[in-house]
Design goal:
The structure holds 2 protein chains of 2 kinds. By secondary structure, chain A is of the alpha/beta class. Chain A contains 10 helices and 5 strands; from the N terminus they run βαβαβαβαβαααααα. The longest helix of chain A has 33 residues. The C terminus of chain A is likely disordered. By secondary structure, chain B is of the alpha+beta class. Chain B contains 13 helices and 12 strands. In chain B, a hairpin with a 2-residue loop joins strand 9 and strand 10. Chain B is elongated. Classes of the chains: A alpha/beta, B alpha+beta. At the A-B interface, helix 1 of A face helix 9, helix 10 and helix 11 of B.
């Protein structure tokens, strides 16, 4: 089983903490232990590698559920697995609705926890990849010149070179050159590919131009 | 007299004015007529005298103006009829003194009469004012009397007016109803006849406020609070006493019932407390248990690894033993609370008592996001007592504090449990950041059945006081300026002679 990732455990009971530490190390995870939310916050940012939070519901000061909301509010969303001494249904519903991976009642089967952790790490890995892809895309888009960005915005609406030339008031041959540059710099395989990128980047089409060319 | 009392004197209106002048002329005319009627037979000087009388009469009835007119008319009449030459208005030098003295007599008569008349009028006015005042005062007195009588008759507490020796003079309706006697019967009795106790107080204590049993008309015993005040003798009435009698049977019965049922209530409360704690205990036992399970699973994995990691497996096993013991310890402490029989009072450390309590309340504290701050002074003197009862006591105070902080939206969610040396022993206080205490005498909080909680029975703090007092200590409550409340109790030190330094 390939296991890589950091497991962050927040539980106020030392016995539970130590037991989890041993269990998680036995399957090869890196483990960090915290007794309370403030202790966890003192760590600063989340680790660079995929990670997963194992959180007790009842914590002194700020409860696990409140902490989950707080993280969501700050748009930091590591996968969370809740463990609790006695969970009730409303509590678990609230946790799952807020995006928890799993809600386990102590004592739990080790395999249930490990499965949840794997699922959590997978989610985190995907999230990280996605955000890395997004970052690449933004870098590529930023490398376009102003004119090239204008041409790209019109190409992805499906306009022909001739129409773009009229809209922008430049020669059709120039449009062709810009278009080639855009495809190369954005690393796009086709116009459809480019349109998908524009969609992810959230590039707005200029409705005025679209109307003008339709006329 | 109508003219004197009438308003025309100061505010003349024309017909009345004319009437007055008419009367003046009439008076002079009458005097003249009398003069002639008597004239031939009596002395000739009677005419002017009669005219002076007419002037005085006119002045009395009509005032200054008509009086002056009467003088002028009378003077003319004297000049015409009684001075030489007779029957003419010609004035002879010899007759001048007579005329002048006549006029002077008239004027003096007029002045004296007017003065007299003014006095009479003022006296009449004063009399009217006085009569009006008397009427007003009488009405006020009647209202006041009525008010007092109503107060006396409709008061919900019994009131009796008695002679100083207690003989009943008046009894209000509430008292008649309370005692089951008519007022007429009560008038034949004295307060001491009503008392059901074997030895009624010799004299009534004027400061009053004693509680005693009275015998009703139907033979039943009624507990009342009696306060007597003496109404001192005045020059118009002899000394009296007023007795205010309040039926306190209900309160007394409640207290007696409470005393009877106190032990049952205490047991019930203990069970209720256990109910509150059940979830807490479950959590407390569950924590080490889940440690045991997880450590077991981890040990299994360390042993199955290739190569097996024996050191890690052994560490996990020793944690299993430790956590198992911890669970057993919690179970043992619960059993102590459930079955406190056979605990002899012995010297003990209050700090330890409080520390042992902590596992039982951690869960409840966490559920309310309360951070408990323990401040136990080192080297506290030992106190003699029952550990379980004292634990129950502190537990009750802490649970009260948690209740007070439930639903309070304060950022400061601390509860401070403090044990310090003081008052000849140890002072333990529990401080919350809750809703604070009601604005009453705080001793009332410890009275049975007094409660500020919607679902409270009002016995928790009463039991706390019983426990503290049975240990020779005292308990009190105070509001904190920061909001919240502090409940504290002091227990005497074991080697401090067993009593508190006041």
């Amino acid at each position: 089983m390939t296991t890589s990732g950091t497991i962050l455990v927040v539980d106020d009971d030392a016995a539970v903490r130590e037991a989890l530490h041993s269990l998680l190390r036995s399957v090869g995870f890196a483990v960090e232990l915290y007794g309370s939310v403030p202790e966890f916050l003192a760590r600063g940012s989340l680790p660079e590698t995929p990670c997963c939070l194992v959180l007790d519901i009842r914590l002194p000061g700020m409860s696990g559920l409140d902490f989950q909301n707080e993280l969501a509010r700050q748009k930091i969303a590591p996968p969370i697995i809740f463990i609790t001494g006695h969970g009730d249904i409303p509590m678990s519903v609230r946790a799952m609705k807020a995006g928890a991976i799993e809600f386990l009642t102590k004592p739990f089967r080790d395999q249930d926890l490990l499965d949840a952790i794997h699922a959590g790490l997978e989610v985190d890995r995907k999230r990280r990849e996605e955000s890395r892809g997004m970052a690449d895309l933004q870098t590529h888009y930023a490398s376009l010149s102003g004119r090239e960005q204008e041409v790209m915005a019109q190409v992805v609406t499906g306009l022909m070179n001739k129409q773009i030339a009229v809209n922008l008031g430049i020669a059709e041959i120039t449009v062709k050159v810009h278009r080639g540059q855009v495809m190369r710099k954005m690393n796009a395989q086709s116009v459809v590919d480019l349109a998908r990128m524009a969609d992810r980047l959230g590039i707005q089409q200029d409705p005025q131009l679209t109307r003008a060319s339709a006329r | 007299m109508t003219f004197l009392s009438g308003p025309t004197w100061s505010r003349p209106d024309i017909p009345a004015l004319l009437a007055r002048y008419g009367i003046a002329m009439l008076c002079v005319g009458l005097a003249l007529a009398f003069g002639f009627l008597l004239g031939p037979d009596v002395d000739v000087k009677l005419g002017p005298l009669l005219l002076i009388a007419g002037v005085v009469l006119a002045a009395w009835f009509t005032g200054l103006g008509p009086g002056l007119l009467a003088i002028i008319l009378a003077t003319l009449a004297v000049e015409y009829f009684w001075t030489e030459p007779v029957y003419s208005f010609i004035i002879v030098r010899d007759e001048l003194p007579l005329m002048i003295s006549f006029i002077l007599c008239g004027v003096v008569g007029l002045g004296l009469t007017l003065q007299r008349r003014r006095r009479e009028q003022e006296a009449a006015e004063n009399r009217v004012t006085l009569e009006r005042r008397v009427a007003e005062r009488t009405a006020q007195l009647r209202i006041s009397e009525e008010r007092w009588r109503n107060l006396f008759e409709t008061s919900s507490v019994g009131i009796a007016i008695t002679e100083p020796n207690g003989k009943v003079l008046r009894a209000n309706q509430a008292l008649q109803a309370m005692l089951g006697y008519e007022e007429s019967t009560l008038r034949l009795m004295s307060l001491s006849d009503l008392m059901a106790g074997s030895s009624p107080p010799e004299d009534l204590d004027p400061r009053g406020g004693l509680e005693l049993p009275l015998r009703r008309g139907d033979g039943q015993v009624l507990w009342v609070s009696l306060s007597v005040s003496v109404i001192p003798a005045s020059d118009r009435s002899p000394a009296l006493a007023s007795a205010v009698i309040v039926d306190i049977s209900a309160r007394r019965h409640a207290i007696e019932d409470w005393r009877r049922g106190q032990s049952e209530v205490a047991r019930a409360t203990r069970l209720t407390t256990m109910g509150v704690l059940a979830a807490s205990i479950a959590h407390e036992v569950n924590q080490p248990l889940s440690g045991v399970v997880t450590n077991g699973q981890a040990a299994d994995r360390w042993l199955r690894a290739d190569p097996p990691d024996l050191a890690e497996a052994r560490a996990a096993l020793s944690r299993i033993v430790r956590d198992g013991n911890r669970a057993a310890e919690i179970i043992r402490s619960i059993r102590n609370i459930l079955d406190p029989v056979g605990e002899e009072p012995k010297p003990l450390s209050i700090g330890k008592v409080i520390e042992r309590l902590m596992p039982l309340i951690e869960n409840e504290l966490a559920a309310q996001n309360i951070v408990l701050v323990l401040d136990l002074a080192p080297n506290l003197p030992k106190v003699t007592g029952d550990a379980v009862q004292l634990q129950q006591l502190v537990l009750n105070l802490v649970l009260n504090g948690i209740d007070a902080m439930r639903g309070q939206r304060t950022t400061d969610r601390r509860m401070i449990v403090r044990a310090l040396a003081g008052e000849g022993g140890v002072v333990v206080s529990v401080e919350d950041r809750g809703s604070g205490l009601p604005d009453i005498n705080h001793d009332r909080l410890f009275e049975p059945f007094y409660t500020t909680k919607a679902e409270g029975m009002g016995v928790g703090l009463a039991i706390c006081r019983t426990v503290v007092e049975s240990h020779g200590g005292r308990i009190w409550a105070e509001s904190l300026s920061s909001g919240g409340a502090r409940f504290a109790f002091a227990l005497p030190a074991t080697d401090g002679g067993g009593t508190l330094v006041p």
